Amino acid sequence: MLFILQGDGSAKECECRQIRIAEEKLKASGISEEFRNKRFENYKYDKSTKMMEAFLTAKNYSKKFEYIRAARRNSCLLSGQVGSGKTHLGMSIANNLLDKSIGVIYMPYRSIITNLKQSITDEYNYQREIQRYKNAQVLLIDDLFKGRITESDTNIIYEIVDYRYFKNLPMIVTTEKTVENLLDVDEAIGSRLYEMSKDYVVTMQGKELNYRVYGG
User: Fold this and answer.
1) pLDDT value of residue 51
2) Which homologous superfamily is 30-214 in?
3) DSSP of 84-126, one letter per residue?
């Protein structure tokens, strides 16, 4: 039963409905059980001030999300070198939102961009696939522009980012690129991401920031 009929004739939403909605959103997210375990509580931030700053920024974004989700600056950009813990923080935000029944779609950049390029000659399949990322309540792009970048890569990412920019749909983006690097790759993509994430930008660079080595 999804609704309970009250004595006055009104219908009250059954708690089981919210549980079912939450389960459906988690299933649709594409986030594995392994990544579901990445939480703020188990992020090791005590190895450097940069990690602490990144942790606080990500947690603050997560905490304020409901208040800023309709604002222009409603996104979070986590920039850092390999092993800096940016994916852990991105997943921590996503898991926190999923726990609140907010729909998050996970987009691992390298694998998804390959899939989209392979389907681009079939307009129906391409549109069906890309709409998932364009229209997600919240989109988590992990490792944006990792590896060699082609014109097709930037065109597809631009299509997603531009759509979400004008629809004011939040994004959580992890990348090894700095804001300046993103602007160099594609100014339109970089400037949109920066404008949407301006209040929640994290940059983690430096040998001591290898989370896999120093994070415990």
Assistant:
1) 87
2) P-loop containing nucleotide triphosphate hydrolases (3.40.50.300)
3) SSHHHHHHHHHHHHHHTT--EEEEEHHHHHHHHHHTTTSHHHH
